[in-house]
């Protein structure tokens, strides 16, 4: 072997400098620190209870106390000697969603609205139970406070689900049923789940549910509202603020997460045919939260029900098309309650 062969070798790599070892540690730490700072900056606190009651309840805000410690916020409006209608709002909404109908139907009907447990100014309830049974109990608390033994019952979305569940549990108390883009029916054969909105989609994931109790940007609420309606112009600054601030009312965000993990008891849909109350099924034909075809499923299962699809309307007909919604309800009740009163089998 020649001297040249001895010299033909790769020199050993230079030793790693401490700087490069520090870099491997510092970069992840910097990223982690940035994430922590970003999280802290995005943290959204609860709103102040007293301030929200003053802003959204007013000086005459009414609360009904229940036997299990509930404190249910409600409004009793309209014609006091008229037939009573109790209206139930949807998930993450409040009794304010019904004000357009109160303004249009209040001259002929006594209209009672309430914030369901975990919503609006009712907030959290003892036991943190937000099942259908707990929601039904809230209706009973308000009805007892107002001494209402019988009434017309209506609801939108989740509130519609509670309404038909109530009609199954207390059939003798429900004179008529109004299902407005109501939840609770299974998908029809070959159907895909609805598009939904960004807020509901986030609640499908564990991380999304964890963040939902801590980070609630106003922009997320705005996008969720826009994703729920077809008539985009109804989503104004006041509406966004109301949904955003009441979602952050103490206990409401935690209740939202609990509801997302609580069974909607899909097996109960098989019993909806037991309902005998005159039933109006009213849906927007552009609903992206619940497939509009659910209206037909309700209609097929509830005997002598009537169905109406409002063209070009999304998930909130009472806010997107209040005139058409109020007119449909008034016409239905005028015809069907008169028939019911004359029918010996329903007296």
Main β-sheet, spatial strand arrangement: 1-2-4-3-5-6-7-8
Mean pLDDT: 88
Number of strands: 8
**Rg of Cα set:** 27 Å
Task: State the CATH architecture.
Answer: 3-Layer(aba) Sandwich
Along the chain, the helix and strand elements come as: HHHEEEHEHEHEHHHHHEHEHH
* CATH topology (level 3) name: Rossmann fold
What does this structure look like?
Strands 1-2-4-3-5-6-7-8 form an eight-stranded mixed sheet, sandwiched between helices. The model is unreliable at 34-41 (pLDDT under 50). 40% of the residues are buried. It has helices at 3-7, 18-42, 49-56, 99-105, 132-145, 158-169, 198-202, 206-212, 218-226, 237-247, 252-260, 294-301, 317-320, 322-342; strands spanning 62-65, 71-78, 84-88, 110-114, 151-157, 174-182, 279-284, 306-310. By secondary structure, it is of the alpha/beta class. The longest helix is centred in the N-terminal third of the chain and has 25 residues, at 18-42. The chain has a single domain (49-346), classed as Alpha/Beta hydrolase fold, catalytic domain (Rossmann fold, 3-Layer(aba) Sandwich).
Summary, kept brief:
With 347 residues, this protein is of the alpha/beta class. The chain has 14 helices and eight strands.
């Amino acid at each position: 072997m020649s001297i040249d062969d001895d010299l033909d070798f790769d020199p050993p790599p230079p030793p790693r400098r401490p700087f490069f070892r520090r870099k491997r540690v510092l970069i992840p730490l910097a990223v982690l620190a940035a994430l922590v700072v970003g999280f802290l900056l995005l943290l959204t606190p609860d709103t102040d209870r007293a301030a929200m009651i003053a802003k959204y309840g007013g000086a005459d805000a009414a609360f009904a106390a229940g036997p299990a410690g509930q404190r249910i916020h409600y409004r009793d409006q309209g014609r006091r000697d008229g037939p009573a209608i109790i209206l139930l709002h949807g998930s993450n909404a409040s009794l304010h969603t019904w004000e357009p109908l109160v303004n249009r139907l209040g001259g002929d009907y006594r209209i009672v609205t309430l914030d369901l447990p975990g919503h609006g100014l009712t907030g959290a309830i003892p036991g943190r139970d937000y099942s259908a049974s707990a929601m039904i109990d809230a209706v009973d608390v308000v009805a007892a406070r107002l001494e209402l033994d019988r009434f017309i019952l209506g609801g939108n979305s989740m509130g519609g689900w509670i309404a038909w569940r109530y009609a199954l549990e207390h059939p003798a108390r429900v004179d008529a049923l109004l299902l407005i883009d109501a939840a609770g029916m299974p998908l029809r054969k070959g159907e895909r789940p609805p598009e939904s909105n960004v807020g509901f989609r986030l609640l499908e994931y564990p991380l999304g549910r964890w963040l939902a109790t801590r980070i609630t940007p106003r922009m997320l609420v705005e996008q969720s509202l826009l994703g729920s309606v077809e008539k985009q112009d109804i989503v104004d600054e006041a509406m966004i603020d109301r949904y955003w601030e009441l979602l952050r009312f103490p206990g409401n965000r935690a209740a939202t997460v609990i509801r997302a993990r609580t069974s909607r008891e899909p097996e109960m849909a098989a019993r909806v045919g037991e309902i005998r109350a005159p039933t109006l099924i009213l849906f927007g034909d552009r609903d992206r939260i619940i497939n509009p075809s659910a209206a037909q499923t309700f209609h097929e299962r509830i005997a002598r029900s009537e169905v109406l699809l409002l063209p070009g309307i999304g998930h909130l007909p009472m806010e997107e098309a209040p005139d058409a919604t109020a007119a449909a309800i008034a016409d239905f009740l005028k015809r069907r309650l008169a028939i019911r009163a004359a029918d010996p089998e329903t007296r």
